[in-house]
Amino acid sequence: MRNYELLPVALENAPKGDQFAPADEHAGVWSYLSKDPCANVRIVGDEELSDVAKLFHVEHPWGALYGKAGQCMNLRLNKESKVVPATFAGIGKKGPGTISFLLQNAGPRSAELLKLRQGDSLEVNAPIGQPTELDGVNSAVLLGGGYGCATSVCQAEALRALNPDAHITIIIGARTYEFVYLENDARKIADEVMIYTDEGDYGTKGRVTDGLTKILDAGTKVDRIFQTGPVAMMRAVQDLAINKYNIPVDTSVNPPFECGGGYICDSCVIRARFYDPEEKTYGDWRTAFACQEGPSILGEVDFSYEVKLVTEPDGFRQVDAANLEHRQLYPTKETQV
């Protein structure tokens, strides 16, 4: 969770050297001095994964220094543009001070960003939210649906770095072969990779839940399940893991959000009950800001609540009501009067 009071300390300990040179005077950590969380950064690499998706690598020393697997970022073309959320797909892949993200065309905002090429610049606010909790995980299954596999691969890389002996299985799901992303990256880091496509033109025909069921029915010990993807997929995985097999699930929720700072745009309120890995118990249901306590949620998510916020015409009024409830339960200095 970002704390601007810690900025002087962060800046003092920020990396030095030419390899961390920002794209211009407003880039990197220096953008925070003006309280504009978006840094203007240079694209140092772009990989076309399909007709509608690309993997971007950008210079962002602040994000590379403080970012971790499971966290997210806000992207925008310029100060006049609306933001597009994305999660970390890697840190340091293109050298020190770089971060990576996968972007798929989901509308006008992302379509504009996908036109960018190596050498171009954009504005990035990173990192946002909390990293994925990986301590104590010796065996994990990570499920990535569509472009959500970028988050899964990044989490797997972090788990491997933390626990080299961990057994890691990655299950990738997609509509067709065209949307199977980062398979080679997954195979480099995982002990086993399973691929499921809806049409069966690549891998196995079926859903990621088929692969998960196969693993768990075989009696394989799994400490935790991690998932990122479409809401329908994550709802099915969560129900299967928690209600049938009693295995905790870490869900990367990605509702649309504008500010990335909490208590401002109110667009990323979710409802969840968080899991305590030490006590092995779930807390009470409550509302939370995905950009502050997420996007990586260890626990159970109320997906009907999230879908309602996103899809219903009066969604903003519902968000405001939920946000008010959240502020009353968890007041901050700004809300205490």
Key words describing this protein structure:
alpha/beta; Elongation Factor Tu (Ef-tu), domain 3; Rossmann fold; 10 helices; disordered N terminus; disordered C terminus
Structure, described:
With 337 residues, the protein is of the alpha/beta class. It has three domains: 4-128, Translation factors (Elongation Factor Tu (Ef-tu), domain 3, Beta Barrel), CATH 2.40.30.10; 132-251, Nucleotide-binding domain of ferredoxin-NADP reductase (FNR) module (Rossmann fold), CATH 3.40.50.80; 253-337, no CATH class. Helix content is 27%, strand content 29%. It is built from ten helices and 16 strands. The chain has helices at 7-12, 61-66, 108-113, 149-162, 183-189, 208-217, 231-244, 290-293, 303-311, 315-329; strands spanning 39-50, 53-59, 72-76, 84-91, 98-104, 121-128, 139-145, 167-174, 192-197, 204-205, 224-228, 249-252, 269-276, 281-282, 286-289, 296-301. Strands 7, 8, 9, 10, 11, 12, 13, 14, 15 and 16 form a ten-stranded mixed β-sheet that branches. Strand 13 and strand 14 (281-282) form a beta hairpin. Helix 6 (208-217) runs parallel beside helix 7 (231-244). Residues 1-34 and 309-337 have low confidence and may be disordered.
